[in-house]
Design brief:
Blueprint lengths: L7 H12 L20 H4 L3 H6 L5 E9 L5 H8 L18 E10 L8 E11 L3 H18 L3 E2 L9 E9 L8 E10 L2 E9 L8 H19 L14 E2 L5 E9 L2 E2 L11 H11 L2 E12 L10 E10 L2 H16 L4 E3 L5 E8 L5 E9 L2 E8 L2 H7 L7 H16 L8 E2 L31
Parallel strand pairs: 8-17
Antiparallel strand pairs: 1-2, 2-3, 3-7, 4-5, 5-6, 6-7, 9-10, 9-11, 11-12, 12-16, 13-14, 14-15, 15-16
Helix pairs in contact: 1-4
């Protein structure tokens, strides 16, 4: 799936929603430290859910998982939001252990230039027990109603153990005009979920029936994940980076239970999703997880080189299928660069080359049993040269992360806490990014090595 640049509205609105989580101190995580973590990303809405309710055209655009190791407040403050529409107060004093937010978007017809007709947010909150979840659900409803731009709809289908449905018009800061919005919150055991649908056009606006149908599908899925019948738990097999001023852009499943999560109407060329599903079937991919983290770079300037850390983790139906996937990657890399075998205790190799935008690329591929991980460090050397920064990337930093990733996959190391980014991945100087062809620095966040 191809990700598109996020628009200013969607950035500030997503951050505004996450402000609702700033008071969610995960006080009770330690009590369940010995138990497997719940697969919150597997509980979120999926593009296939929208297809099932006849609301096609949605694709994943953004995902973030946060727990005690990286609070929602840290995530929020690093994004520099300019406020929201009362969403920052929806949770109030509730104390969730962990949160997951997935943003999905729908283009205006065939227009893939970045103009969205609808945006959906799927928010999943995990609490210590059912009672805490029930209290949080009540608080969410009260806070949204107090914000003044949503009204409660009395005729509403109950979802899960309890639910509420609100609708009305909101005026996002980056749009400055009223837009239609539906909001549905519901509880399943110790999980609270919220679905927010925002409509920017007159085409096929989300209705109460559509929102409730989506919630019913998601409630059944949450039950299934809680029972251990669904979800691949790959979310707990990836190494996340802790980067000051930047966070994971995408943290989500691309394929789950053998079903590829994309839609032809959305982010890909016609037929691409069918092709992806066909390949997933042919190569016996059961689950696929994607992590994308910006290390440094300009937020909105198209075509500007940046520095990224990408990670693709595929779980195959057998070790034989995983071995075949590993060898396909080795062969593909061998055609464009030199391949070096690594001593990581598993089948593994590295490759490095220069990308089309001039950045030096370090890549590592590792197979552990029936899983194959594909790590990419897009170093940002072209951007550093443009900005006059001192950046001397070395493959050692990528290999350091690869060793941690291999241990995570084999279960000898916990992947719960994000890993501090190796300093070799950052420029020596503090500075702000200046867009190519621009004169003013973007007042975002300084990128720098630790003091």
């Amino acid at each position: 799936m191809f990700l598109v640049p996020r628009l200013p509205f969607r950035a500030s609105f997503a951050f505004a929603i996450l402000l609702a989580l700033t008071s969610l101190a995960p006080a009770s995580v330690a009590a369940r430290r010995g138990a497997p973590r719940l697969d919150l990303p597997a509980m979120a809405l999926r593009t296939t859910d929208f297809m099932e309710v006849g609301h096609d055209g949605f694709g994943q655009n953004y995902g973030h998982l946060t727990d005690r190791s990286r609070s929602a407040r840290q995530f929020l403050e690093s994004g520099g939001p300019d406020g929201g529409n009362g969403d920052e107060h929806v949770i109030g004093d509730a104390r969730a252990d962990r949160t997951y937010i997935l943003e999905l978007a729908r283009f205006h017809g065939d227009d893939q230039s970045g103009s969205f007709s609808q945006v959906a947010f799927s928010i999943v909150l995990e609490f210590e027990d059912d009672d805490e979840a029930a209290d949080a659900l009540d608080e969410m409803e009260d806070q949204w109603l107090e914000a003044g731009h949503l009204d409660k709809v009395r005729r509403a289908q109950q979802i899960g153990d309890g639910s509420f449905y609100l609708e009305g018009d909101a005026i996002p800061h980056d749009v400055q005009r009223p837009v239609e919005r539906t909001t549905l919150g519901f509880q399943v055991d110790n999980i609270v979920a919220a679905i927010i649908l925002i409509n920017f056009s007159d085409d096929d606006p989300p209705t109460q029936d559509v929102t409730e149908d989506l919630a019913s599908i998601q409630a059944d899925r949450i039950e299934s994940v809680l029972d251990g019948d669904e979800g691949g738990a790959l979310f707990d097999k990836v190494v996340r980076l802790r980067v000051d001023g930047n966070n994971a852009w995408m943290d989500s499943y691309f394929a789950i239970d053998g079903v590829w999560q994309c839609d032809d109407v959305d982010f890909t060329s016609p037929g691409a999703c069918d092709d992806a599903q066909e390949l997933a079937d042919e190569r016996q991919i059961e689950h696929s997880y994607f992590l994308k983290t910006r290390i440094f770079g300009n937020f909105y300037a198209d075509g500007t080189p940046e520095s990224w850390y990408w990670l693709f983790l595929d779980e195959f139906s057998s070790e034989e299928a995983a071995e075949a996937g590993f060898e396909r990657l080795r062969s593909a890399y061998g055609e464009v660069s030199s391949v070096t075998d690594l001593d990581l205790g598993h089948e593994s190799f590295s490759a490095h080359y220069e990308s089309g935008n001039g950045n030096l690329m370090f890549n590592v591929v590792i197979r552990v049993d029936n899983m194959v991980v594909y790590m990419i460090h897009d170093t940002g050397t072209a951007l550093a040269a443009e900005q006059g920064w001192t950046l001397e990337p070395s493959e050692s930093a990528t290999l350091e992360l690869a060793e941690i990733q291999a241990a995570c996959m084999e279960g000898t190391e916990s992947c719960e806490a994000p890993v501090r980014i190796p300093e070799e991945m950052l420029p020596a100087e503090a500075g702000y990014v200046t867009p190519f062809g621009g004169e003013a620095s973007i007042a975002m966040h300084p990128i720098r090595r630790a003091a």
